[in-house]
Amino acid sequence: MSSSELSDASRPAKVIVHFIADPVTETFVIDHAFSLRARGVGAFTASLAPGLYKIKFRRGEAIAETHVEVSAGSAAMRVEAPVIASSSSVPFRASGVTDEQLLLAHDISSGSAVSFGRGAHVLFFVRSAADALGDAPPAQGLTLHTLDGQLVFDLQAAASGSAECAGLLAELEPGAYRLRADCNGTLEQIVVATKDWQTQVFLLRQLVNELPRIDLRSTSVLMSKDPFDPSDEMLSYAEAARSALAGGRSTMTKQLLNSLIEDKVYSPMLGLYAAAALTSADDERQRLRLLDTLQRLLPAHPDVLALSLEIAPAAEPISIPPMLRRSWQMITAATLDDRASLEPGSLPARVPSTVLGGTPWLIWPEDALLPATDEAADTSQLLTDLQKLLDQRGPEETEDLEEVPLTESESAVFSYLGRRASLQHRMKVPSTPDNDVNVTSLAKAFGTTRQDVKAAVDGLAGKILGATRRSDS
Predict the structure, then answer these.
(1) Strand pairing class (165-172; 114-115)
(2) Angle at Cα 57 formed by Cα 55 and Cα 63, nearest 5°?
(3) Spatial separation of the C-alpha atoms in residues 126 and 142, rounded to whole Å
(4) Cβ-based burial of 289 (10 A; exposed 0-12, middle 13-18, buried ≥19)
(5) Which residues contact 192 (CB under 8 A, 6 or more apart)?
(6) Do 180 and 142 meet the contact criterion of CB atoms below 8 Å apart?
(7) Nearest to 104 by CA among 124, 78, 131, 81
(8) Phi, psi dihedrals of residue 280, rounded to the nearest 5°
(9) Residue-wise over 166-205: b if at least 16 C-beta within 10 A, else e?
(10) Distance CA 38, CA 31 (A)
(11) Are 35 and 48 in contact (CB under 8 A)?
(12) What CA–CA distance (Å, rounded) separates 456 from 412?
């Protein structure tokens, strides 16, 4: 018998460990040397060598940890995930909110709607975190607007509730709306009202820079055929999936995903989260089946249109922004590959590159929207002039230009062109039409739209070229 066979025979046999968790809880198994030995979503089985392990459970943003000893000679072990209470804007029973919030959300959702149109119902519900209770009403600074910016209603004036929470069930014309909140500046995101569904929008007033504000980043959106039920287990699943999507993760078991694909679980938002997370997955057939389900449930939804761009080009220019940031990234990529276009002057054509991170939603500062022009001007000559200026001056001669106040997008373009000019000087590479940058290459480099780059180049040219002409004269 060889020495390797002896050493193998002397090793303790591994133990089968069954991990039990709900379909959206991630489990990480870490050994004494801090090495990851197993991971899974929902219930799964791992074969582990005897020893002491740290088990980390993650459900959305909430984490719980425990230690487990795997003993030699054990036939099998069972490890159950603890109950993990995660913070959420949704007042479901597992999130530790008050009975007042639970009851009010259910009562408003199942009550009579205030009419601002006909055909679709949207529940807006705002609750205050315990440390953000104050003199200001919960819904202060929250308004709903049409895509062209016209006010539909002020939620503070239209909602009913208390100092702790407030809500409104609104009947609206089916379509997309701009939800606007005052949070250290005015932020906006899209809410879609869908015919025959009750869209449920939950918001949380919490401390932002030590001041109570409605934080759109933690917005939760659900869709249901029935009134809001705080005991529905799908609420916590959707919340965990939303939170995971914000962190760029997918946390769903194959069983839950298959249920969504087969339309056995009536939860379109959970399906949208799953579809957005699956875009980088290898199973093309699975993605197509889920897309087919969503197209049947939400045929006119902008996020479903974004998902379909990976299958076929858009037949018409895109005129409505999606709700999810991942969907916006799909649309942006499609426009740069000419699989889609943005309708000139529409809201999608005005979305800036300065969208919020750390959230699954597409959220932008209202004052950062690009000008509502019918057709963006051709900026190729301005871009050529900027390149020539930086190429001619060289990096040491552009210091005076760095004092010119620029927007974030303008600064990004200026820095990019400056670094490129500096590299060409060091490499002694002459600037030629073949190696010049263009609007599309800049948009791909920054992960934004051509419209955003054109607006940045136009503003940059006015400031930089103007400053140069003044200094030269």
Answers:
(1) parallel
(2) 120
(3) 10
(4) middle
(5) 175, 176, 177, 199, 301, 302, 303, 323
(6) yes
(7) 124
(8) -100, 5
(9) bbbbbbbebbbbbbbbebeeebbbbbbbbeebbbbbbbbb
(10) 9
(11) no
(12) 9
- Residue 283 amino acid letter: D
Parallel/antiparallel/unpaired status of strands 211-214 and 165-172? unpaired
Q: Which two tokens stand for residue 181?
A: 């909140």
pTM: 0.81
Instruction: Say if residues 124 and 104 touch (Cβ distance below 8 Å).
Output: no
CA 99/CA 102 separation, integer angstroms: 5
Six token digits for residue 131? 């440390």
Tokens of 293: 């389900």
Q: Could you tell me the CA-to-CA distances from 256 to 249, 252, 407, 467 in Å, in that order?
A: 16, 6, 45, 59
Task: Tell me the C-alpha distance between 197 and 210, whole Å.
Answer: 37
pLDDT digits (tens, 9 = 90+) for 133-169: 666 788 989 999 999 999 999 999 999 988 889 999 9
**Rounded to whole angstroms, how far apart are CA atoms 390 and 345?**
31
Angstrom distance (rounded) from CA 255 to CA 252: 8
Q: Residue 17: which H helix or E strand, with range?
A: strand 15-20
Identify the burial level of 301 via C-beta atoms within 10 angstroms of its C-beta, where 0-12 means exposed, 13-18 middle and 19 or more buried.
buried
3-class state of residue 440 by DSSP: helix
Give every CB contact of residue 427 below 8 A, 6+ residues apart in sequence: none
Tokens (6 digits) for 247: 């962190």
List, for residues 365-421, the tens digit of each pLDDT value.
999 999 877 655 677 888 888 877 777 765 555 555 566 777 888 888 888 887 877
